[in-house]
Design brief:
It is built from 17 helices and 12 strands. By secondary structure, it is α/β, with parallel strands linked by helices. The strands form 3 sheets. The chain has an 8-stranded parallel β-sheet with strand order 4-11-10-9-8-7-6-5. The chain has a two-stranded antiparallel sheet with strand order 1-12. Strands 2-3 form a two-stranded antiparallel sheet.
Amino acid sequence: MSGQRKDDHVRLAMEQHRARSGINQFDEVSFVHHALAGIDRPDVSLATAFAGIHWPAPLYINAMTGGSVKTGEINRNLATAAREAGVPIASGSMNAYLKDPSCADTFRVLRTHNPRGFVMANINATTTVDGAQRAIDLLQADALQIHINTAQETPMPEGDRSFASWGPQIHTIAAAVDVPVIVKEVGNGLSRQSVHTLAALGVTAADVSGRGGTDFARIENGRREHADYAFLTGWGQSTAACLLDAQDATIPLLASGGVRTPLDVARALALGAVAVGSSGGFLRTLTDGGVGALVTQLTTWLDQLAALQTMLGAPTPADLTRCDLLIHGQLREFCTDRGIDTRRLAQRTPTPTTGTGTGTGTSASTGAGTSAGTASGADAGAGGALNEMTGSTR
């Protein structure tokens, strides 16, 4: 039953992505264009670091699948693409393996086909400490994702209906395992209250995983005989809204959910994410074009992200948080209702008071020479460093 459910998830997710309009709230975030803000491409680094984790680029393949023969093949191909592009990867929920060890290889391929990569194991919030450790050990995982998904479990025919234990169990797991713990939503978003609660529970980082990508409430409703939970479709906050809502977070934020292009990656980084993940879009590329097409997409995205940083005057991904942003439409209304001052986002770049000729963007406020020199040393151009993962925590 679990294997069939995993195959159903992939099929229904692909149906969603093929029918999607391509519009989400990332379109309500735009950069103020400063025509003289640009810097030199060799001075740009894609390296990112958070909570002792160092990645050569702020892009990762997020949790998807595993647990059946078909999904094991998908995981093998995803692992191969992650290895070739030099990006981190997360497994899908390993609950199927914890219940039935015979499907271990459908997850283990993430490590066997990506032996030096940064791999994250994924479990649910009801998993025991022993189960969490088994998941970590199977993948020799560098980090542990714990997914939380009340809006998916609610319409799921066989779903959990007891949520009160989730927080205490997350705290127990985070205190017990020896790898970083990242808690992620599955596409409905994390509010600022949720992020602060997670910080208090002792987790390392939070992946806000907002609305805009795969809608698992819709998927589970599609598996119901009468599809009687259609009203949950679109539940939650967008990824952009979540990042705006949690500007005062005390733990690092990762972003996923509705990420369609390198521009969305740059938007999420400018809104405060330390790294950005995608699932459904990458799976569609793999399904339609194979491993080679996905490797091309990943490497192209990295090259284009570096190009955006060059144009925006951001030597590193973290420097994108100095760029001026405009918030539009319903996203601006969300900010008003949540008490978020969007004006300060539009005025983050100081206006030069003298004619220094250094431009008006990030490089002008930070000193392009110093920042770029540091970034260049960290990653000597994006290309070479992406051939080998660095910063493993194990």
